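Re: the 488-residue chain
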Amino acid sequence: MKTLRYLFFLFFLFISCGDEETPTGPIANFGYTIDNLIVSFSDSSTVGDAAINNWVWDFGDGSKSTEQNPVHTYAEDGTYSVSLIVTDENVLSDATAPREIVLESQTIGPTANFSYTSNYLVVSFVDASTPGNSDINNWGWDFDGDGVDDTTGIGPHTYTYTVSGTYTVRLTVTDENNLTSSKETDVTVAEYTETGPAASFSFSANFLEVTFTDISTPGDGGIITWSWDFGDGSTSAEQNPIHTYEEDGTYSVSLTVTDENSLVDTYTGAIVVSATATFISLAPGYMSINLDINVEPTGELILQVGNLSNPIYGISLRIAYDSSNVLFMGATEYENGFFFGSEAISFVNDVSSVIHLVITSTSGSGVSGSGILYKLEFEGHSEGSHIVEILPDFLFFYDSTGNEITVPNLITYSATINVECIGEFDECGVCNGGGIEEGACDCEGNVEDCAGECGGSAYVDECDVCDDNLDNDCTQDCLGVWGGDAVE
């Protein structure tokens, strides 16, 4: 009976063991892409019952890798036999059949490139070239566009130009395979020029007392000094002086300003003052200098009123001129003056060359004292001094109701426009002149000597020496040779 039970147990055990399945292992496979001598491999193996956890690559050139997706760089062209072995967590492995990869490298040269930064005539250059198959080992820089390299090496390099202009800069690079590449770029440079101040001023008159306000514009440096000439022999170094004149009149006032760079500018303008009389005048505008119309040729007059003891609310006037000499171009309200924002202004340049201005104040209290009304722009048509005058018979003042009022002791001042040139001044200050004569170095007709000095006295003696010292002039020796040392 025991024997029977034992045989039954063995039979059952045999049947049970025969039911177990064999595990499925991985199937190795891979793909790749070629970039010159660089090959990127990608694992494309199929997983079995367990995950793959080990990769062994043989690149066929003696190199191996255990990465899943390696990138390998071959040293040279050729045919390489590559294989991959994969193993999973059940320690089951599979290997691909050796696969031949053919590599044929391309010869790639360098690509020249550079960047630059300029500081007026000084320019800094930085190489930005990229190598090909081999390293760059030579750089040739031509900064001035003459076709000859000015320096070599990777840099960065700094080059100083002597004059303003546009230069074609070329960089040529060469690599270890003796392959070259060039890059050309136009570089524009300019000399540094300091901008100086522009002098100007405004003023307000209270009878003979005038308050001057500096409205100069600084250049590259701040303004540090102010020099006023009030036109009556008095001066001031204040920025915003107050000056009292001794008598009525028209005065030419000049302001000279100097900045931190020792650059100077002067502005001159005319003002009218009166101890008792109310006046209306035309005087040089803030944008002109002595009303000299030059290259444009345009200039401005300012229409100003002074010493109004009682408020007024409007002015109507006519200004006459000779249109064959000057031409009226338009009127502009003065922003900081009287009647700014006026309700009505009209001007007519008719056949009699008369400007008609109607100015109405919007101020509820009217205006009094002194101030500027308008800026009038003229264009010169002939050289000379030309009168622009206010016509007293057509000058009217109005009260707040629009009725005409009489202003006692009224004085009118006209203006003279000086047209110096119709055309352009040349570099020698001559109207429509031809400039410096050919071969000369200045407006006086001087020429450069052998030392390069304009109007200098240096000369070249018989020994080809350039100087202006007569004591060391070349002499002849006893053989008649200039500069020789033979003696008797």
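The mean pLDDT is 78.
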